[in-house]
Amino acid sequence: MKLKSLTQEFLHMVVDNGLKYDFIKFVSIFMVLVRGDNVFKMFYETVV
């Protein structure tokens, strides 16, 4: 399996189901846990 195409398909599925912002929230929380608050702020500013 190609990981990249699988990831793209997953992202399309998420967006199609209207869960785009829930996914962004999940990624933001994950990044806070892994990298800390500064990365979250950068990511949040990029998205919003």
Describe the structure.
The structure is a single chain. The protein is mainly alpha-helical. It has one domain (14-47). It has three helices and no strands. The chain has helices at 3-16, 20-35, 37-47. The longest helix is centred in the middle third of the chain and has 16 residues, at 20-35. The radius of gyration is 12 Å and the shape is globular. The termini are far apart.
Question: Key terms for this structure?
Answer:
mainly alpha; globular
Topology record:
Blueprint: H1 3-16, H2 20-35, H3 37-47
Helix pairs in contact: 2-3
Task: Give a summary of the structure in a few sentences.
By secondary structure, the chain is an all-alpha fold. It is built from 3 helices and no strands.
Portion in helices: over 70%
Radius of gyration: 12 Å
Can you count the beta strands?
0
Give a short account of the largest sheet: none
Give the ordered list of helices and strands: HHH
Bulk shape: globular
- What structural category characterises the helix and strand content? mainly alpha
Mean pLDDT, all residues: 74
Number of domains: 1
**Helix run count:** 3
- N- to C-terminal distance: 33 Å
Q: Strand percentage, roughly?
A: under 5%
Regions with little confidence, pLDDT below 50 for 5+ residues: none
Looking at how many chains there are and whether they match, the oligomeric state comes to single chain
